[in-house]
Design brief:
Blueprint: E1 5-8, H1 17-31, H2 38-57, H3 63-77, H4 84-98, H5 108-116, E2 120-125, H6 129-138, E3 147-150, H7 151-154, H8 161-170, E4 178-182, H9 185-193, E5 198-202, E6 216-217
Parallel strand pairs: 1-2, 1-4, 2-3, 4-5, 5-6
Protein name: Noncanonical pyrimidine nucleotidase, YjjG family
GO molecular function, one term: 5'-nucleotidase activity
InterPro entries: HAD-like_sf, HAD-SF_hydro_IA, HAD-SF_hydro_IA_YjjG/PynA, HAD_sf, PGP-like_dom2, Pyrimidine_5'-ntase_YjjG
Length: 227
């Protein structure tokens, strides 16, 4: 059946979260005079951040727990002494400055121009409501999307079925004529498949142990093969 609605994840799928996040930390650390090698920090922070986001998706930590805990655990692990007040300040400034950096994955504009002529495009994101639209506006991709669904607005997070069902209803989209595209196998792909929504995995890091039955691309422009 012909696809009419394409739902995208935002971070790590269109918006280059890792690159933008790295630049944000450099700025925030400079402002707060944090004397630390950014590479050493990120080596520890990145896996901890993924761990906290998994806990956040599973409703095991709050937004504030995530923002504080990922920083506190990283500074402790690299033995850098910093007060809770400074950690809270860094956490706030990180969110405030994150959308100032607007690197997108290669092919984003070309792909969206191609798809916009053929489909209604939407975003489903677990990112924080107060920053996701700002990221899209500043990176000049906001106008491509008809509906933007955040986990904050739904009250639960991907892969919870309620997010996908809400998105389909909000976009007035038939599940049989819709598809989800994202980088996270658990949140984006399996979450969609669990309710019968087709999905494509953006495996930009060439991760192993990918289910061979799931359509997979290693760059955005490969999506043209499916759409």
């Amino acid at each position: 059946m012909k696809i009419e609605h394409v739902f995208f994840d935002l971070d790590h799928t269109l918006w280059d979260f890792d690159k933008n996040s790295d630049l944000t930390f450099q700025k925030v650390f400079e402002i707060n005079k944090i004397q630390i090698n950014i590479s050493d920090f990120l080596e520890v922070y990145l896996p901890l951040n993924l761990k906290y986001w998994k806990l956040y998706r599973e409703e095991k930590v709050s937004k504030s727990d995530l923002r504080y805990g990922r920083l506190k655990n990283t500074f402790d692990a690299i033995n850098y002494d910093v007060s809770d007040d400074v950690i809270d300040k860094i956490a706030i400034e990180y969110i405030n400055y994150l959308a100032d950096f607007n690197h997108l994955f290669v092919g984003t504009f070309e792909l969206l121009d191609y798809l916009k002529e053929k489909y209604q495009l939407h975003i489903i994101t677990n990112g924080f409501e107060e920053i996701q639209s700002k990221k899209m506006i500043n990176s000049k991709i906001y106008h491509y999307f008809d509906k933007i669904i955040t986990s904050d607005s739904v009250g639960v997070k991907k892969p919870n079925p309620k997010v996908f069902k809400y998105a389909l209803e909000y976009a007035n989209a038939d599940i049989e004529k819709s598809i989800m595209i994202g980088d996270n196998l658990e949140a984006d792909v399996q979450g969609a498949l669990n309710i019968g929504l087709k999905a494509i995995h953006c495996n930009f890091n060439n991760s192993k142990n990918i289910n061979s039955n799931i359509p997979t691309v290693t760059s955005l422009l490969e999506l043209k093969q499916y759409l």
